[in-house]
Amino acid sequence: MIRKALFLFVAVCMAFAVQSVSADTVKIGLMGPMTGPWASEGQEMKQVLDLLAEDVNENGGLIGKKVEIIAQDDAGDPRQASLAANRLSTMDIVAVVGTYGSSITEATQNIYDESQIIQVANGSTAIRLTEKGLKYFFRTCPRDDEQGRVGAQTIKDLGFKKVAILHDNTSYAKGLADEAKALLEKDNISIVFYEALTPGERDYNAILTKMKSSKPDGVFFTGYYPEAGLLLRQKSEMGWNVPFIGGDATNHPDLVKIAGKKSAEGFYFLTAPLPKDLDTPEAKKFVADFQKKYEAPPNSIYAVLSGDGFRVIVEAIKSTKSTDPDKLADFLHKKLTDFPGLTGKISFNDKGDRIGEVYRVYRVDGEGNFVLQP
Amino acid sequence: MKEKRYIVYALFVVFLLTAPLYLNRYWLEVLNSVGLYAILGLSLNIIVGYGGMFHMGHAAFYAIGAYTTAIISTSYGVPVLWLMPLSGLTAGVFALVVARPIIHLRGDYLLIVTIGLVEIVRIALINNVFGITGGANGIFGIPRPTLFGYKIFKSHQFLYLIWGCVAVTVFFFYRLENSRFGRALVYLKEDEIAAEGSGVHTARYKLAAFVLGAFWAGMVGTLFAAKMTIISPESFSFWESVLYFMIVILGGSGNIAGVILGAFLVIGLPEFFRGLENYRLLMFGAAMIFMMIFRTQGILPPRQKVFDVSRFRKGGEPI
Amino acid sequence: MILKLSNLTKRFGGLTAVDRVSFDVEEQTVMGLIGPNGAGKTTIFNLITGNYKPDEGEIVFQGQSIGGVWTNKIVMLGIARTFQTIRLFQNLSALENVLAGCHCRMKSGPIGAMLKTPGQKQEELWALEHAMKQLQFVGLADRAELLSGNLSYGNQRLLEIARALATNPRLLILDEPAGGMNEQETEALIELIFKMRDSGLTVLLIEHDMGLVMKACNRLVVVEYGKKIAEGTPEEIQADSRVIEAYLGIDEEE
Amino acid sequence: MEEFFQQLTNGLAVGGIYALIALGYTMVYGVLKLINFAHGDLFTIGAYLGLTLLTSMSLMDSLGVFFGLLLLVLMVMGLVGLIGVLLDQIAYKPLRQSPRLSAVVSALGASIVFQNAVMLIYGARFQVYPQDILPRIVINIFGMPVPLIRIMILMASIFMMGALYFFIQRTKVGTAIRAAAEDQGAARLMGIDVNRVIMLVFLIGPALGGAAGLMVGLYYGQINFTMGWIYGLKAFTAAILGGIGNIPGAMVGGILLGVIEALGAAYISIAWKDAIAFFVLILILIFRPTGLLGERVAEKI
Q: In Å, how far from its chain's centre is CA A220?
């Protein structure tokens, strides 16, 4: 027993001591949920970054060096994220892409800031993240208030007078739902239903039944695609034909697979434009390359946004010919304008937020295609 | 035997004291994490390890401590570490109120009720109960702690703070283990009816174990809040409670050194698997099964208590 | 009179396990409770020690009614017991088992323990000494450090007595103390019972070993189907025709 | 009122699934006093195996919908049952003599292994069952639209529970299982091969869980590797609610939990639905400490 404890002790010490450090590459970190409930997002983020890094390396690398992606799992948990961030910040990385959830990102912001590492979040839309005046923090996804505004506008355009809002109590969905609710109430549109479902379940009939009895003209669901798909499917099984609108977390090809083409038809959602709808050569090439390498198109818009995060970092390093965080941050804040991203043009304001009208409205047609609405 | 054990303990203390000299920030943070969980494990050990009660809802008490600290420090600007006793007290009072009606439940019934408890607390936090928990966003901007005028924010400073707290916990809990109270809990675990027949007020002692465990978990909540500066409901899920539970059982329930080792295994070990990426948790799960199979009593099961009774014997003969 | 049972009744569902049983136990005597298996003897013990709550009737201990009072309170008042199926703390040492008995005569709580107040320290020392005394009393002092589960059957019975004695009882209730003991051990047990009685204790016991019962007890109560059918000195009981018929007589007929 | 009945059927549909999974917990618990925390993941495996078999073998085309489905259900049940037996042999059998909580930790480890193995094999993405296997017919019951498939699912789970109940109560093997659950030592003395009973229990319980997984896949369409965790926890709650170790208890507990959830969501709050369910559970246990149908065992002193 004692010997075992001693052995363990020595093993721990040795493992602590072994740290490989190599300096001949430009290291860019990726922090994402590789395990846990959001593992599909994190794993696709890694696929996107691996692909883009390969591309950079094949085209001569970056300031004479190869790019290396170092991925760390945050498991969608703040504590593990802070460990991942600490690990990354000791691994000599220039910048980090990620992560997904807002509260997870928030648990790491200070760590990167103190270590002077550029952080480009790809899925963290909570408003407050960029209101702290952190110099090295950026994000390629728009903020909740922006999306809330577009969502409310879309609901008004569709002419709904009574709206049901459903979120899933994640900080993203709740934030978006709150924004939309406030804006709609200002315009005298009545919110007849405002509640949260529990994500990860399969049966939402009880919620739909309750929602139906409040007789809304339309439903704004601000949660994620797995639940959205089930809601659409179960709604049509109930024989209820109310139009549904979703936030950008519902933008995922699996939505149609889960709901079925018939049930998904007529579903509206807001999102940054899909790569397929961008006629920029970058987007086209990216989709083709991704298809070629992984035998499927990219699924998650957040994974694509992480790709944009990577690409702006690469652009900054290329243009400044430096890995100095201050120079990079300065470049991203001031000099990067209308960079051709995978999801449209990218510029950042002083806070590190993406500037410009990002959101588009899509509608699902009878064949399950996502059609850009004019 | 005994001497060897103390050599290991001494080496361990030396390792912790000197860790900032040769460990980078990441590994220091891992140690900090292990330390926090070690205290949580020790506090759960009172309930599960000594008292033998199936309690898988410890994260509820931890959450209440952390939120108490977060709410009061952000709204009234009270220095964080001062809030430790208050956070412990809130968690303890909460435990007293909720555990009273359920304390008589046996084994697995108690288990599911405690799971229910942690879920109810988490759902309440997410739903922004009383409008003070910040919902899914949680609470952010918790000030850094200060100790003797020094602001604590660097990893190695936290290392000393957290492991200092571990040391204090070990000091107190070792005394507790070797006292009337600690023994009474063990009697309860061994045989409730015999314990009662020896004059132990079973319900009161079970409740006291819950309250004391909760009090300590609440105080760790303060440390956690101070270290993270943001807390949100994700940190207090049922899965968290499962982790503490595994720490106690895997390390050796009822043994202080075992629980600390358990914290190293459950919290530290997955960090070594980081290189395996997606295989990380798979390996971790398999490791747990094998550890349980090869040491079914936990890695370090409790040792028999040794009492110095020589003075009650004269020349080898009993008086 | 230290203990007085009057019309004690306990029902389990439709079964009346104890049916209006009354008897008194005099101070500093050894009282035996005998009867065939399933007659309700252990149930009477469980009622006295508070493990069961009586449906009817009264139990008065030293002038105080204790029917339905919590077990631990009853222990505090001065009634200690051993169990028919040995209920030692198997994974703890003999000494720790006896320390359990000291519990109710100590006061310090968790806070005192963590701060190690002088009172708590003294109390712990007292408990150790007290526990060792009991072990010595039953003759197990040299086995104090052994795991109780590793003791012989007879010694486990003795250890249970030591644990009960450590609570400083006025009345000691022994449930089949000689069960599993050999002849020599039983003889030693009888000596021990006398020793306890002489030191001022009152003993109430259930036993099937008639040799022990007749030798050790001052008075006997016989129960059958939950009812008391006889009471008296061992000689009287041996002469009682109902008892012979119901219980002792079986041997003669066969 | 119509909404009330609609919610009641919603609750029944969910509860039927809970009940089916709860049976696996309760059977294993009855015999081994072990909470098989990996049971929820066996349910997940059932859902994934069902998808694989469904898409790779095209049973429906050659055998028709009914027989194709029947064969599919049987294959999934058999395979998951086999995995259950393996799980017991590897992770639980060595721990028979050790403290109960050690086996619980081993079960938690097994749960982690299963969950991540499914993730590694099938990927972390949501998987989707083909949509057109079962006819999507909606029938009207007293003016309420109820999808036919939902009735079929409920019927199927009631049928399986009934069959199990018959098996346990009326057959010789079932009697052996009950005897082993009552008192393992005594059962052994009566000549019952307890090891085989345990194997059987680990075959039947997971098989039912696997069938539930398949049904969830067929009905809801969307499955992912973490789904077993939530369903498992709910089913475990249901088993305790009914009185763990008690087979009719698991059925009653499952149905009741489903109904409590649906009505709690409808009339109190959707977001607090699970909290309400747990709260009701705690209330019930305060007044009936061994669940609704659990026996009150007075400990022999």
A: 19
Rounded CA separation D277/D279 (Å): 5
Tokens of D220: 């809801």
Number of domains in chain B: 1
Is the CB of B116 less than 8 angstroms away from the CB of D237? yes
Looking at residue C93, the DSSP 8-state letter turns out to be: B
Asked whether residue B315 carries a pLDDT value surpassing 50, the answer given is: no
Q: Is residue B297 part of a domain?
A: no
pLDDT tens digits, residue range A292-304? Answer: 998 888 888 888 8
Sequence-ordered list of residues with C-beta below 8 angstroms from that of B218, at least 6 positions apart, any chain: B61, B62, B64, B65, B68, B87, B88, B89, B90, B91, B92
Question: How far is B30 from chain A, CA to nearest CA, in Å?
Answer: 7
Q: Where are the beta strands (DSSP E) in chain D?
A: 127-128, 138-141, 144-147, 222-223
Whole-model pTM: value is: 0.87
B27 within a domain of the structure (yes/no): yes
- Residue C85, both tokens: 């199926």
Is B307 within a domain? no
Centre a 10 Å sphere on the Cβ of residue C184 and count the other Cβ atoms it contains.
Answer: 9
CA distance D60 to chain A (A): 20
Taking an 8 Å cut-off on Cβ atoms, the answer to whether A43 and D227 are in contact is no
User: Strand, helix or coil at C218?
Assistant: coil
Question: Is residue B14 exposed (0-12), middle (13-18) or buried (19+ Cβ within 10 Å)?
Answer: exposed
Residue C254: pLDDT band with limits 50, 70, 90: very low
- Asked if the bond preceding A99 is cis, omega within 30° of 0, the reply is yes
Contact B12, A9 (CB under 8 A): yes
Residues 6+ apart with CB under 8 A from A282: A311, A340, A341, A342
Instruction: Give the helix/strand (H/E) hosting C134.
Output: helix C118-138
Contact status, residue C104 vs residue B230, Cβ threshold 8 Å: no
| Number of CB atoms found within 10 A of residue A202's CB | 22
D296: which 2 tokens?
């009150």
Which stretches does DSSP call E strand in chain C?
3-12, 15-25, 30-34, 56-61, 64-65, 79-81, 171-175, 202-206, 219-224, 227-232
Instruction: Please check whether residue B283 lies inside any domain of the structure.
Output: no
Asked if the Cβ–Cβ distance from A2 to B274 is below 8 Å, we say no
Residues contacting residue A107 through CB under 8 Å, at least 6 positions apart = A78, A79, A81, A82, A85, B228, B230
**CATH ID of D2-287, from 1.20.144, 1.10.3470, 3.40.50, 1.20.1260:** 1.10.3470
Which segments of chain A does DSSP mark as H helices, in order?
A: 2-17, 39-58, 78-89, 102-114, 144-157, 171-186, 205-212, 225-237, 254-259, 261-264, 281-294, 301-320, 325-330
- Checking if the pLDDT of A6 tops 60, the result is no
Domains of chain A, earliest start first: 2-142+279-346 (3.40.50.2300), 145-271 (3.40.50.2300)
Distances from the Cα of B144 to the Cα of B164, B226, D190, angstroms: 17, 6, 67
Give the residue-averaged pLDDT of D20-27: 89
Q: What are D44-92's pLDDT values in tens digits? A: 999 999 999 888 877 677 777 778 888 888 999 999 999 999 999 999 9
Question: Which band of pLDDT confidence, cut at 50, 70 and 90, is reported for residue A23?
Answer: low
Chain D residue with CA closest to C51: the answer is: D301
CA A346 to chain centre: 15
Please state, as a whole number, how many other Cβ atoms lie within 10 Å of the Cβ of residue D192: 18
Going by C-alpha positions, the residue among C241, C169, C240 that lies closest to residue C204 is: C169
Note whether D112 contacts B296, CB cutoff 8 Å.
no
Per the CB < 8 A criterion, the answer to whether B209 and B185 are in contact is: yes
Of A220, A310, C10, the C-alpha closest to D298 is: C10
Q: Mutate one of B289, B296, B299, B300 to test the D interface: name it (highest D CB count within 10 A).
A: B289
Helical axes B238-251 vs D100-122, angle rounded to 10°: 130
